[in-house]
Each structure stands twice: as C-alpha cells, then as structure tokens.
Amino acid sequence: MNDPVLLTGAGGHVGQVILDGLRDEYDWRLMFHSEPAKEPDFPYWTGEVQDYDDVAPAAEGVGAIIHLAGDPRPSAPWKSVLQNNIDGTHTVYEVAVDEGVEKVVYASSNHAVGAFESDERTPEMYRTHDEFRLDGTELPRPGNKYGISKATGEIIGRYYHDKYDLSVCNVRIGNLNENHPPIDYERGQAMWLSPRDCAHIHQCTLEADYGYEIVYGISDNDRKYYSLERAKEVLGYEPMDNSAEWSGEEKVVKEQ
C-alpha cells in the first residue's frame, strides 16, 4: 500500500495498537472523535464518524481506510450503536466510494457471532470447539446490540463491494489484551489477540489482494474456536503468539 491510509477511531485501544505497531510502515491519516491530548505525528481530523462532512476531508487522497470508530461497549444501547456504529459505517463507505478509496478494512467483532458461544441451544459441535471452528461462513448470531451493529457493518460492506467493487475485509477482532491473556481459558484465552498479532493482521489486510472477506482476528491459541485458515490463506496472516504459551518474559525474548 503506497497511498496514505486513514485510520478512524485512532484514539481507541485498537487504533493505538495498530499505530504503534505499524507507525513507520504507512503514510497515516488519523481521525479522532475529539481533540487528542497529544499532538499526533500524522495529519489528523476530529469529528463525528456519522457526519459525511467530517469524514470526507480525512479520506481525501487515501488508498485504504481502516475503520475502527464506533461505540465499543458490548452493553452499548441501541441509540448509540445505531448512530455511531451503523450510521457511522455507512458514512465511511459512502465517503470511500466518493473519494475513490480502493480498500476498506472494517473492525468487526467476535460479538457478531457471540450467541454461538453462550446459547445452550447451540448444537454441541459449535460449543465443544474441538473439531469444529467458526470460520466466517456461518450466519451472524449476535448476542447483544453491539453485536447486531457489527454484523450489520459486515452486510453494509458486502453491499458496497458488490455495487462498487470495493475491496472489503471484515476482521472479527477477539480479545485484545496487552498484558497476560485472561485467566478464563474457555473464552478469554481462546479469543486472545496479542498486540503484535493485531498490528500484523491489519498490515496483512492492507497488503493482500481480495474481494470481500470475513476473517477472525485472534492469535494462534491452542484451543481456539475461531478458525484462522481464511486469514492465513487469503491475507498471509502468520500469528506469532499463543495464549497458552505467552508470558511477559517470553514476549520480550521473542521481540528482541
């Protein structure tokens, strides 16, 4: 990717991890919801992601958009996810088409299929995780209104890919945790995404060629119940971390 890359939601946790990991790799353009506390190293804009006139200047001349902005709370109420997540995503795609952007990377979430994990009515093969893994071909099954908004964002991207031939990659981001993976092995460790794997998979989305994809953004955890095969095959994703093996000391050694 030689053209500038716009990162919406640049002030959020995922945005900071991506920017820290890929700071020197791209000519970044940043969009914040409000004025950042520290002057960024790259050109930036502030505004509402659902406001076309706020987003359009930030997207001028960029080749790709990594769209992270929105309400990230699993408990977010409908009014907020409708405005910030669904309307905001629709606006980003409208701007992308009008500005001639080639690629949109959308921060989806494991919450788009969260009910597969928690509903006792789910068939056993989905809940045991040993022989079956969700791979992105399954229908959405959100477990909360935030998940509804993320599944809707994936569908919006499908429309814009089909109608305007945008390259769209939806990354169903797992549990991004900078410290030790959560102790809850069944959920927290299975869904863990290390910071460097987070940066790496997003770099892969910017460099790979694809049409429309849904991939899972997690590290290569031992008992994962999301498949990494599509991310590896299409994006060239090569995760470096595993929640079952990770420790602070090992992480330092691997990064040297």
Attribute tags:
two-stranded parallel sheet; 256 residues; globular; alpha/beta; disordered C terminus
Structure description:
The chain has one domain (5-255): NAD(P)-binding Rossmann-like Domain (Rossmann fold), CATH 3.40.50. Helix 7 (185-189) links the parallel strand 7 and strand 8. It has helices at residues 13-22, 52-59, 78-98, 115-118, 124-128, 145-164, 185-189, 195-207, 229-235, 248-255; strands at residues 5-8, 28-32, 44-46, 64-67, 103-109, 167-173, 175-176, 192-193, 212-217. It has 10 helices and 9 strands. The model is unreliable at 249-256 (pLDDT under 50). The radius of gyration is 17 Å and the shape is globular. Helix 1 packs across helix 8, helix 2 packs across helix 3 and helix 3 packs parallel to helix 6 (145-164). It has a 7-stranded parallel β-sheet, with helices on both faces. A two-stranded parallel sheet has the order 7-8. The chain is an alpha/beta fold and 256 residues long. The chain starts with a strand and ends with a helix.
Q: In angstroms, what separates the terminal alpha carbons?
A: 27 Å
* Elements, N to C (H/E): EHEEHEHEHHHEEHEHEHH
Sequence of strands across the biggest β-sheet: 3-2-1-4-5-6-9
The average pLDDT score comes to: 88
Class by alpha and beta content? alpha/beta
What does the main sheet amount to? 7 strands, parallel
| Tally of domains | 1
CATH superfamily: NAD(P)-binding Rossmann-like Domain
Instruction: Please report the total strand number as a whole number.
Output: 9
CATH fold category name: Rossmann fold
Outline:
globular
CATH architecture descriptor: 3-Layer(aba) Sandwich
- Give the DSSP E fraction (strand runs of 2 or more residues): 15-25%
- What's the tally of helices? 10
What is the CATH C level class, in words?
Alpha Beta
**Poorly predicted residue ranges:** 249-256
